[in-house]
Write a structure and sequence with these properties.
Blueprint: H1 2-15, E1 17-23, H2 27-42, E2 46-54, E3 72-76, E4 81-83, E5 87-89, H3 90-99, H4 101-118, E6 122-126, H5 129-136, E7 144-148, H6 165-178, E8 183-187, E9 200-203, H7 209-212, E10 223-226, H8 233-242, E11 248-252, E12 260-262, E13 267-271, H9 274-283, E14 286-289, H10 293-301, E15 306-308, H11 315-327, E16 331-332, H12 351-358, H13 360-372
Parallel strand pairs: 1-2, 1-6, 2-3, 6-7, 7-8, 8-9, 10-11, 10-14, 11-13, 14-15, 15-16
Antiparallel strand pairs: 4-5, 12-13
Helix pairs in contact: 4-5
Amino acid sequence: MCADADAASQSVLITMKVLFTIQGEGRGHFTQALAMREMLAHRGHEIVAVLAGTNGKRPLPDYVQNAFGVPLQSMFSPGFQFKAQRGISVVGSVGEMVRRLPEFRQSLRLLDETIAKTKPDIIVNFLEPVTGVGRLLRRIKVPVLVLGHQFMIGHPEFVRSNHARTQQLGFRNFVNIVGSRSAKLALSFYPAENQPAKKTFVCPPILRRQLFEFKNVERGDYLLVYLLNHGYAGEIESWCAQNPTIPVHCFYDKPNAPAEEKKSASLTFHKLHGEKFLQLMAGCRAVVCTAGFESVSEAAYLGKPVLMIPVQNHIEQFLNALDATRTGIGINDAKFNLSRLLAPEVPFAGQSFRDWVDSAEKIAMDVVEKVARGEH
């Protein structure tokens, strides 16, 4: 009996089939998924399907369409609505969700059908809400591991703030729904204790293996900017007009934008592109971003000073910026004051952060395989 159980366990490890569900409104979830795909392939596991949730307001990045080795299917999933492509509209976001409830039900059906067709051993959920609701309603019987830095919000070692308490409560409720009846991989800038009673396991940032090839690239003289929303582009243009001797490369999600557009002698805009972004990050002087966890983690791993500007009314990014600043891997601001990165003393992450990130694959894969075996 024991021998049979051991053999079954080994079989799961060798032939494990994995379904990805990805919240598709942000670049970070896709970079995590691409990194996790590499880790799973390294262990001999197979991705059988990928579902990307989107509310249709932001197109899925071109570079992910064929990146997983299986067709990428999209489905409706709630996302944030923005005011003038800048700050989040809370009322608009809630109203959009209510209006599109029939599409949400269709997404639940698509998820059910995909599970029935592919028969995965585990679902790895990159903060996709439809999967969380399916698990909450007990429609999903397959083990689910949901991952994201958002699950650190309930950890006693996470940063605390009295800012926007109502938004924080809403954020906690959202995270709880997405993580319903699931094991949770809480991505963190720093080591912290696991919380087995909450089925929460702390893990380093999960970064693409490709990033590690760039860690010794010589530093250039340009600044690299990543904008979650193209509404902030005007602020970058204004700063560059006042500082024409500092080269700036800016990536954004503006619809119908060309792959590359040179606005001035010192400013170039780029359409979002994963590999190109990493290449320019490797050689930049410093990074400016809207406090997304993955962008900050990538820049920190490469030893770049980071200036974080949280999106307006985006409590998750506000807390990210506080947490990263407290950890000493960046600085935060309410405006795109790029001049702060030109100061002689700007904090950046050291070797201890790299060592923490380098342990991500072992920690993450141990949790994935245990969840698939029903041990978490």
